[in-house]
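TA notes, week 10

Several of you asked for a full example with nothing omitted. So below is the full record: structure tokens for the whole chain, then the designed sequence directly under it. When grading your own attempts, check the secondary structure regions first.
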């Protein structure tokens, strides 16, 4: 047997061993029977159908995959008995009649009330009227935003109002899953796509929205070229492609530029802009009062940068002003803070406080976990990669010098959980990547009023 064959067989054996280990871990978690998402959805449905409303509100649960529907079927059948209808195969004449009799308010025949819940795949996401439901639950969110719009369209029928309010429940991936596969970020991208397609007046993911049939219809049938506003990403992409086509030599030159490029041009006011990267972050600094050695350094969103750096191809390069270097050094040494929200900032502050208490006050009790706690502290101070879910676990119990034994044990349990799920050295790869991307000035642009 050749060396390559031996290596190939060894790799197969290694893969089999890995799959066995994964299966054992899945079996130990008992996910098939302890599905928190399924449990929560069933509780939500029970709460909705128990309400005394007139007309009676029914519920449609949409899932993208037929396999998911089949896995949910026995649990729905156990909970809702004969009051749940499943759409899992071909749409026969008999099934369509049953569907219309129970869910279509415009059905001209004998309307019935045999079912409270409809569990279906996207097979029923278009072409049918289900407006006796009044509530849609999206068990999953498909990547194609049109699918979600079509689902909502089953109960949001233009000119066929049944309920004053329509309820839409979206079950997004958990933050625990986002720790590993970043699936929550993907779900956020889906929301962005839908907002881009329909605009802010026709959102279907926000808690405070009111879907409007006429507005939805207008936007769905609107020519995209009529939109007055185009997204920032589209503007940049279009501009780049235009420059690439007209001035390929300039694009080639720019791609070869080193970091710390400095330039100056004429503008309607004096200002200095510096685009920097720090570790894995990219940010823009700006000084307007360039003559004042104590002038404020501001952080700008990217869209505010464009109007200040834009210029013609023939724009002459000016000499840097006398104030440039002092301001440039100040901006190089400036330490910005990155906080997504007050809530996130509060969680980080509480997490830091608990971890400091762990190291200073409960060092003995937490000794086996101290190396991992130091990793968490480093992350919070330098990288901020922990999700809100992880931060909440760190702040679930308040740890200080007066904490009792039970609180300390609870905190130990949370730290142990994070260590097992994140890995003791989870920050190593992030740290290595950040070291390669040390704090650097990418470009400095001085605008000089003439």
């Amino acid at each position: 047997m050749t060396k390559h064959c031996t290596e190939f067989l060894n790799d197969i054996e290694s893969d089999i061993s890995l799959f066995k280990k994964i299966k054992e871990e899945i079996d130990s978690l008992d996910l098939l029977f302890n599905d928190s998402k399924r449990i929560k959805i069933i509780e939500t449905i029970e709460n909705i159908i128990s309400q005394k409303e007139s007309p009676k509100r029914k519920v449609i649960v949409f899932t993208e995959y037929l396999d998911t529907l089949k896995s949910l079927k026995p649990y729905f059948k156990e909970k809702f008995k004969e009051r749940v209808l499943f759409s899992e195969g071909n749409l026969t004449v008999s099934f369509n009649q049953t569907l219309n009799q129970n869910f279509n308010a415009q059905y001209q025949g004998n309307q019935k009330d045999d079912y409270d819940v409809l569990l279906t795949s996207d097979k029923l996401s278009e072409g049918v009227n289900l407006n006796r439901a009044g509530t849609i639950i999206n068990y999953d969110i498909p990547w194609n935003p049109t699918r979600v719009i079509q689902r909502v369209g089953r109960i949001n029928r233009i000119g066929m109002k049944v309920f004053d309010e329509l309820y839409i429940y979206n079950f997004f991936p958990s933050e625990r899953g986002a720790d590993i596969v970043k699936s929550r970020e993907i779900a956020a991208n889906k929301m962005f796509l839908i907002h881009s397609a329909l605009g802010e007046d026709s959102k279907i993911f926000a808690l405070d929205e009111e879907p409007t049939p006429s507005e939805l219809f207008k936007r769905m049938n609107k020519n995209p070229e009529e939109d007055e506003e185009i997204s920032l990403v589209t503007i940049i992409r279009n501009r780049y492609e235009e420059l690439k086509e007209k001035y390929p030599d300039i694009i080639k030159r720019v791609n070869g530029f080193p970091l710390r490029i400095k330039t100056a041009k004429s503008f309607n006011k004096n200002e200095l802009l510096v685009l920097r990267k720090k570790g894995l972050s990219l940010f823009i600094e700006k000084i307007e009062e360039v003559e004042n050695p104590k002038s404020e350094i501001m952080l700008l969103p990217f869209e505010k940068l464009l109007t200040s750096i834009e210029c013609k191809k023939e724009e002459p390069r000016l000499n840097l002003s006398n104030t440039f270097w002092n301001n440039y050094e100040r901006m190089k040494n400036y330490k910005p803070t990155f906080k997504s929200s007050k809530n996130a900032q509060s969680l980080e502050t509480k997490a830091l406080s608990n971890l400091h208490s762990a190291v200073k006050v409960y060092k003995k009790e937490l000794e086996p976990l101290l190396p991992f706690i130091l990793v968490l502290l480093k992350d919070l101070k330098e990288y901020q990669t922990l999700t809100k879910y992880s931060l909440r676990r760190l702040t679930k119990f308040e740890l200080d010098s007066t904490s009792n034994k039970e609180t300390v044990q609870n905190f130990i349990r949370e730290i142990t959980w994070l260590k097992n799920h994140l890995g003791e050295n989870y920050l190593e790869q992030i740290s290595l990547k950040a070291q390669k991307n040390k704090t650097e000035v990418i470009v400095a642009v001085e605008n000089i009023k003439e």
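Residues 200-231 have pLDDT under 50 and may be disordered. Use that as a sanity check on your answer.
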